[in-house]
Amino acid sequence: MTTLTMAKALNEGLRRSLGDDDRVMVMGEDVGRLGGVFRVTDSLQSEFGADRVIDTPLAESGIIGTAIGLAIRGYRPVCEIQFDGFIYPAFDQIVSQLAKIRHRTDGAVSVPLTIRVPFGGGIGAVEHHSESPEAYFAQTAGLRVVSCSSADDAYSMIQDAIRSDDPVLFFEPKRRYWDKAEVDLDGVTSLGLETARVLREGTDITVVAYGPMVATALAAANEAEGTSVEVIDLRSLSPIDFDTIERSVLKTHRLVVVHEASVFLGLGAEIAARITERCFFQLEAPVLRVGGYATPYPASKLEQYFLPDVDRVLDTIERSMAVE
Amino acid sequence: MTTLTMAKALNEGLRRSLGDDDRVMVMGEDVGRLGGVFRVTDSLQSEFGADRVIDTPLAESGIIGTAIGLAIRGYRPVCEIQFDGFIYPAFDQIVSQLAKIRHRTDGAVSVPLTIRVPFGGGIGAVEHHSESPEAYFAQTAGLRVVSCSSADDAYSMIQDAIRSDDPVLFFEPKRRYWDKAEVDLDGVTSLGLETARVLREGTDITVVAYGPMVATALAAANEAEGTSVEVIDLRSLSPIDFDTIERSVLKTHRLVVVHEASVFLGLGAEIAARITERCFFQLEAPVLRVGGYATPYPASKLEQYFLPDVDRVLDTIERSMAVE
Amino acid sequence: MSITAPQRDLFEQVAIIDPESGELIDDEIYSPYLADIGDTDLREIYRDLVVVRRLDAEATALQRQGQLGLWAPLAGQEAAQIGSARGLRPSDFVFPSYREHGVAYVRGVDPAVVLRMWRGTTLAGWNPRDVNMMTPAIVIGPHMLFAVGYGMGILRDKTLNSAVDDIVIAYCGDGGTSQGDFSEALGFAASFRTPTVFFVQNNQYAISSPVGIQATVPIVQRAAGFGVHGIRVDGNDVLAVLAVTRHAAERARAGDGPTLIEAVTYRMGPHTTSDDPTRYRDAAELEFWRQRDPIDRLRLVLDRRGLADQEFLASVDETADRYAAEVREACIATPDPDPISLFDNVYATETALLAEERTDFADLHGLDLQGSGE
Amino acid sequence: MSITAPQRDLFEQVAIIDPESGELIDDEIYSPYLADIGDTDLREIYRDLVVVRRLDAEATALQRQGQLGLWAPLAGQEAAQIGSARGLRPSDFVFPSYREHGVAYVRGVDPAVVLRMWRGTTLAGWNPRDVNMMTPAIVIGPHMLFAVGYGMGILRDKTLNSAVDDIVIAYCGDGGTSQGDFSEALGFAASFRTPTVFFVQNNQYAISSPVGIQATVPIVQRAAGFGVHGIRVDGNDVLAVLAVTRHAAERARAGDGPTLIEAVTYRMGPHTTSDDPTRYRDAAELEFWRQRDPIDRLRLVLDRRGLADQEFLASVDETADRYAAEVREACIATPDPDPISLFDNVYATETALLAEERTDFADLHGLDLQGSGE
Ligand SMILES: Cc1ncc(C[n+]2csc(CCOP(=O)(O)OP(=O)(O)O)c2C)c(N)n1
Ligand SMILES: Cc1ncc(C[n+]2csc(CCOP(=O)(O)OP(=O)(O)O)c2C)c(N)n1
Ligand SMILES: [Mg+2]
Ligand SMILES: [Mg+2]
Questions:
Q1: Architecture of domain D31-337
Q2: CB distance from D142 to chain C under 8 Å?
Q3: Is this complex's ipTM strictly greater than 0.95?
Q4: pTM to 2 decimals?
């Protein structure tokens, strides 16, 4: 076991994938010599060469479009989108092409492409550097969407994503890049990409979170006095592991979903709708959601007010517990 | 009153808007001489001139981007995206720019731009011509998203959209383009853009639909034997008029939401989540959703299986009524 | 090795067949690429042109009779398609747009299979791996970039095995050149020097929009702006198209990078069977282009060489008729897809959500799930 | 009226100041655009260059001290920005990228207001209507198209009032030219012949990527590909930049359509204060460009003409220091925004959903809603 930051764990995961399978390629803006603006691809170019770790022109549609072509030729590209807010120029490539090519060709053409996206707020950035666009992709059939919440999980998840024969949107919680954990670099077991993980057992209420909000949910659970909170790390945003959530809710009878993305039409909506359908007579309170407001992501001096924090999670837990 | 198809009603609405306000401009691929592939802009170019009804190059980002520039200069452009599946190249312009410019500039710059999108399936088309991308836009703060369901409403809604100082995504149910209704071309009263409309009163269950599914919901309501179905035309997909739905549910205690878009993370999810939160103790059954499956839109010989129809709506009404 | 031709005046189109005499023009650069084209080849090319036009007409008829939902006729563009497709090797890869029925024919796609997408029994049609040709691209733009990425893959393959010399070609129309993706493709191709040929059929229209809306200078000029080699060719001269494609392919194989070919041609029919071209173009224009018919052009060559005897022409007609009849029969006999196939191939491994929906669907429709699925 | 200059060799950069002697080169086409530039103007231009460099350094210092979240230094690009901005009229409209602090300065934006976005107290900064300059574009690409649409609006205004002769300019970097939107903008501008100037500051890098990744031929060559007029200029020669911008603006005003200007310059500092340029470029390169410093270049002219006396230089320093001090003070004093302003200006009329969230928010934070909001 080694203590690593999440950024470094991802770097090691990429290194391992590049080493294990020479069809793997890394591409994006500034991923080579610079090692990426967050250094997640640090030194990969010098190790694996400029024809496997490629600095691309500044064009996101071009990055994803050429990566699809590489995949059709038999490669397994891993693309970096520099920041969440810069994925939209590639939206057509992702939702109309990447997501649909397997289905369109009746399974004849796979596009095993991983798109890494540092996402979310809390780092005091200028506009377009703090967004949570995951729901756009989670609602798109044909894509897998995942988010890691800790260094150890990040290390295996990125390798699983690259091994997947499906396209994977891999959302990295940028404000947790520098959080450390023990990582087993030789670890071979992994939870896979589709399974949610119960991180903390509890009996009174379930809190589901993913990515950057997992740490927040755990902190809130620890502070919730007199309430036993079960915390689930969703991990996979599409598909969603409803079975794990349902099992928990059948025990706790209450559910809160937390994400940075706006509540309106965020993942919490789907979780609330489906869990309510499954557990209608077992729920003692409506599923409550904590998330961003229905506004654009604000200027950084306001982000503390926009983002869910321990207080808002606690407040929502209380509101749920208060329903009789 | 005149009997018009929805396509013609929209054409008359555009004509009226162009006539009323010379800042209004119409632009898009083939909207001029051809009058649009659905003839919604028929003869507008010959009436208002090629500098107000503009055939653009084949580039959706270019269309929306230049329209934003026109709006900043003081115009009120109405853009046509030829088919639902071709809006994605403009996604960045729409979600990162159009939606956010007012907020970004603290209200100093308005972008009163209407984007018309013929959407939805049921016309036997090839791929990318039958999609329902409304949830991508409804979840984006700063945009208004509406859909008309009949010729008469279409006529006033398109004018309201063009008059709005906010950007409006205007989804036209293309398979209803040829459905006729009585339209009052001199009508001045309108319901506005934010209000849902109760189209049919009922006491046992509420069915919410919008765009192409309104006719389906009404047909199902008429066929539902022994069940009194209230049908609401949502009209505005963002914001959603939850008050009207809540009022209805407090009466019927049951709710079904119908849309062509995939159920997973579709508008039904948000409606289910929020109405359940508001009416938790009044609902006698979980909110049920009828919609497309979690697959890409299929080949046309399969679309009848993908699209909700009267039978599926009836089946869902029955399932809801069966919950005790 | 470097194969370059001086950039010609951009308004000048490469031509091989003299449209008056049917003689072959001696072009210093491009004629050598036709050195191996003998009488038999000329006849086979002619046969291809006639057959694909006949198949195209048959497809239009099938659409009119309700057997297809839609059809995008290629009439007028036969030379551009047959000429370019014949300039490739089977191991090269093709990214078509939606109108490249002629290219598909040369690649060996069964014409009846081409119709399936237009009939609506499948989203695509054929297995791209079988013919090294992707299924049609309906959204205009993205696939131009696929061809660059595919070319990057070829280059990487070449670093592992120097014998690899595949190339890749992508097709789009004059309208398609306005999309940002088209320009990004030129830029990426230049930066990575990929073995990519961009083949633009400038058929003068994007639905109703004349090419002047897309470009105020010849489209081929776009190439030089990105440092890509550009060639403008008479798209109705099948031999010229064949020669320039071979030239571009040879450059690509040699490591000299991408080429943009603008083939100047004309769409004789409607944009699709849903279109009414009389709303935006007139009879005189149509007549102008009818005089430049690509089949007549090659026929001049055959006539001049005495290759177009009755026997040959009858055999061509016979082939065309036979194919058309076969296609008609196969099209009408195409079975509707199995409803439950809706759920197939969305993911490599089916998700729980899809499995649940598949089961619900089977219940609703009273289907037996045994034996279905992936 | 038609104002055209013959297209020059594309590798040749328009230059006015002889970098050895400080003499002004007599350029047949461009010198006339400087006919009105007298000694006072030269001194004022020099003052601008020094002031914006000083302000830039102050902003970097403020960032290092935690007063700004981030800063994108313009050092090295002063001539490109001051020269181009001075080539415009107040009624012309500007679409900047995120590094155009020098342009903002010339437009009359209070430098302390420029810092607010970087401090994070606002998403943008100033009211674009006050200065006819949009706030910074963070996403690279889209705003190039705004400038074309804005130009379409000018053309339509002109049909209503022939006296209208505004033009519009859009700025981006060398990296920005790779985006599809950049190319679409050139295409739309050519098709609609809009009065748009595209001003590309080729500062050799997009973060760590040297310009060779974006373009294998001079960026200015992109213009001709789309039928747009192109000019390459020494971006460190403020007089040359001023002249070519005036020329492009005059063409646009006269109805001769769009121009792409490539100003060849160099980013002397990091991409932003978060960047570490030592990872991707070396001291020799930096030294090469230091020899081409844009301020030194103009100083040669002043020296030669005896305009750079001690008194003048002291007054310039005094202006720069005073501005810097003012900016520092104003920056540190910038109040944090009112938390509830989060909900302002999302829509022209607030929606029920936002009103509800606003109320919940006020409850949660114990705020009084009276007097807040729209
Ligand atoms: C992104 C996108 N926008 C719009 C369309 C609708 N559309 C289909 S074909 C066409 C015209 C294409 O013209 P061109 O590229 O010249 O090809 P051609 O049809 O002439 O072969 C348009 C606008 C589309 N398929 N994709
Ligand atoms: C669409 C988009 N992708 C990525 C980025 C991240 N980014 C910010 S600046 C930059 C480099 C820009 O280089 P260039 O256009 O040359 O301008 P310069 O910074 O050199 O002035 C990148 C990649 C962005 N802002 N927008
Ligand atoms: Mg065309
Ligand atoms: Mg740069």
A1: 3-Layer(aba) Sandwich (3.40)
A2: no
A3: yes
A4: 0.98
